[in-house]
Specification:
The structure is a homodimer. The first copy, chain A, is α+β, with helices and mostly antiparallel strands. Chain A has two domains: about 160 residues, Jelly Rolls; about 80 residues, Winged helix-like DNA-binding domain superfamily/Winged helix DNA-binding domain (Arc Repressor Mutant, subunit A, Orthogonal Bundle). In chain A, about 35% of the residues lie in helices and about 20% in strands. In chain A, the strands form three sheets. In chain A, strands 1-8-3-6 form a four-stranded antiparallel β-sheet. In chain A, α4 crosses α7 and α5 packs across α6. The longest helix of chain A has 23 residues. The first copy, chain A, is globular. The interface between A and B is large, with 50 and 51 residues. The first copy, chain A, binds a DNA duplex through α6.
Chain lengths: ~250, ~250
DNA sequence: CGGGGAATTGAATACGTTCAAAGGCCGTGG
DNA sequence: CCACGGCCTTTGAACGTATTCAATTCCCCG
């Protein structure tokens, strides 16, 4: 069930207005399917329910849970979300993170049932696109389907990049290097790599995701600091030597 | 560049005829986009170039290489393909395997440039759907785009399943258990799990993919044999105790 | 039957985990 | 404003697991 509260939308007519901490619309995964609704045929303006803008989620709240039916797909516009599954032993396994501009819920489009859960790590914001709304628009404007295809093929690309980043990493240093690079790239614009990253998640979440113990992760962070590849202070990480980092990550 | 040779198609009119070792069309990832071409509007019958059926690839040949432009997407109809990337140190990294019925090339649909390479492990066969052809059909039959959307959203689902299978695995036993389960499920029909699997790839390829040394993989295989969870003889693997395997894989 | 690559096994070493303890950060309440 | 407590993070030392290097066995193909 979608647990987060609704909020009257502001800037519905001019969503590009960048709010503090929010990603710009042109950098959002949903932009291709969102723009036609906001600016296209005016007949959609009254169908307010299609797109719910700037929905806040409090830290720790679930965006959706495993087994929930797919009601909406989400674009994260601020904050960080972790994707988790519960293992056969009842433990929580982190299977991914999502950052502003990224899509959530795409794994359920085909089956219409969520196969994992999404939890906000800090206070976050989403734009929610209802699946019903997407279907309606697609039926009315056939050309709109092209935008959906763009969205999905781009998501395929993103997933492959992710998988390629982590497959076959053996030691802790390589895994962490791959993680840092992956996060840096996903928090950057296409041209310039952002070298300072804010890691909203706990060390436990990172360790869990990478298949390491929190102690090993901590030791590996300090190792990367001693070799002057990064600096990290609490949740603020700075990449110092991007070349060495790439080499470590085999990227 | 697409390096494998072309072959005059047989059974073009009745592709369901199941050849030995080939997957049935209804179990193929491309079925949704393939059927409308074969059986739909007869005007497409002459556009033979859209779909190239039963294209053989010899063991060791490349289906495509990193950097190649995307000409076609492929459905593997027999054999096994490995996806590889070359690391910064010039070593080959296996980032995935594909089995009959699965899609190849989807990672390049959005960028139109392949980001990894696909190599046949044994003699394999593909059905090749040209991207140009897909576009043409989509333009002529708007409803066809729905099938493309189905294909892509299903691929998103598959990729998530994959990622979820391997994220956060720490020890060799868990990783291998997850691998065996994943392969078994992908080689099964939806209802019944296939318990005997043929592993066409070498131990080196599996180890490389899982981030283990070949020796460790070998030891872990024998460990799983001693605990009566599997039996393995050369490339023939049998799952004996599926419950224990699931528990190990946290699935 | 012989040769070469692939797979397995053995022993020493390196690396990650475990358990224990200490240090740091931050919100709460005095 | 400072002290306290809880949680997150880091560090240390002993242990267990994976890697490394070497040697052997197995399998396939000529």
């Amino acid at each position: 069930m979608n647990q987060h509260m609704k909020n009257p939308t502001k800037n519905a007519k001019h969503p590009e207005v960048k709010e503090s901490g929010h990603i710009a619309c042109q950098d959002c995964a949903l932009d291709d399917v969102c723009k036609p609704i906001s600016f296209g045929d005016q007949s959609f303006d009254q169908t307010h329910s299609i797109l719910e803008r700037r929905t806040p989620i409090l830290a720790g709240e679930y965006l959706y849970k495993k087994g929930d039916p797919l009601n909406s797909i989400y674009a994260l516009t601020s904050g960080t979300v972790k994707l988790v599954k519960t293992t056969s032993k009842g433990l929580q396994q982190v299977v991914g993170f999502r950052f502003p501009g990224e899509l959530l819920g795409d794994e359920a489009i085909s089956t219409e049932i969520h196969i994992l859960s999404a939890v906000a790590i800090d206070n976050a914001t989403t734009c929610d696109m209802s699946m019903k709304g997407l279907d309606d628009i697609a039926q009315m404007i056939p050309s709109f389907q092209n935008n959906l295809i763009k969205l999905l093929s781009n998501q395929c690309y993103t997933m492959h990049l992710q998988f390629t980043s982590y497959a076959g990493r053996n030691n802790a240093e390589e895994r962490l290097a791959a993680f840092i690079l992956n996060v840096a790239e996903r928090n950057s614009n296409k041209d310039i790599l952002k070298l300072n990253i804010f890691l909203a998640m706990t060390r436990d979440d990172i360790a869990n995701f990478l298949g390491l113990r929190r102690e090993t992760l901590s030791r590996t962070f300090t190792k990367l600091q001693k070799t002057k590849i990064i600096t990290i202070e609490n949740k603020e990480l700075d990449i110092i030597d991007i070349e060495k980092l790439r080499l470590l990550a085999n990227y």
